[in-house]
Design a protein that fits this description.
seven-stranded parallel β-sheet; Alpha/beta knot; 241 residues; 13% strand; Helicase, Ruva Protein, domain 3
Length: 241
């Protein structure tokens, strides 16, 4: 039996897109490389005629796009997400260029959904959105003019994912045991509550503690059993109050 193509598990997430034409151009870029799953977080205009015109023969992807209210909904069910951003971030996750990032991601997509998250045209991804991702990917460009059109960025990453397909065999067992986005988020919430209850974390002055915690565990690529163990450990601490 042939396994599904890993590209079928790749989710392109566009956050707060302001120009509907860019959505149409993005789905056209996706289809040329064999991607078909589009998630939109609060687009300014959608559905829209301009998106349909720019999509050309990729309107099937456009018609099946899922509109989400926030990034949690867009990443629901994924096991790893990449923030596609050109801006340097403090306390960033692991950072890859577009080729390295595609090679890192494609193995996970063999058995589970993954996501590439792109920000709004004018402002990019918010810090809160980047924190929800496990890795950061940048597209190498002219340092004096590094701003890429949204659809162009989608095209580059879609191409790199397709080119990474021949390398997938080395990742055959990589993703099967990873915890889902949902389970990891529940763990972070549980941990935050325990830290607050123990007075280690002051919710009024959190500084960057939870951001550092997210960075730590994002590097670890938590597995399902590890999340269960950590949640059990936190529950045991709760009972000691």
């Amino acid at each position: 039996m042939n396994l599904p193509c890993p590209l079928d598990n790749v989710r392109i997430v566009l956050s707060h897109t302001s120009h509907p034409g860019n959505i149409g151009a993005a789905v056209r870029a996706m289809k040329t490389m064999g991607l078909s799953s589009l998630y939109l977080i609060n687009p300014k205009l959608f559905p829209d005629k301009e998106a349909e015109i720019r999509a050309v023969s990729a309107r099937d992807i456009l018609n099946n796009a899922r509109v989400c209210s926030d990034i949690n909904e867009a990443l629901d069910g994924t096991i790893i997400a990449a923030a596609i951003t050109a801006r340097p971030r403090g306390l960033s996750h692991d950072v890859f260029d577009s080729r390295q990032g595609a090679q890192e991601l494609i193995g996970y997509a063999r058995e589970n959904p993954i996501a590439l998250v792109f920000g709004a045209e004018s402002s990019g991804l918010t810090t809160a959105e980047v924190r929800k991702c496990q890795i950061t990917v940048h597209i190498p460009a002219n340092p004096d003019y590094s701003s890429l059109n949204l659809a162009s960025a989608v095209q580059v990453m879609s191409y790199e994912l397709r080119m990474a397909l021949p390398e997938i065999e080395q990742y055959s067992q990589q993703s099967s045991n990873l915890a889902s986005f949902n389970d990891v988020e529940l763990f972070f919430h549980h941990l935050e509550q325990v830290l607050i209850a123990s007075k280690f974390l002051n919710p009024q002055k959190p500084k960057r503690l939870m951001q550092r915690v997210r960075r730590l565990f994002s590097r670890a690529r938590l597995e399902k059993e590890e999340v269960k163990f950590l949640r059990g450990f936190l529950s045991a601490l709760d009972k000691m109050k």
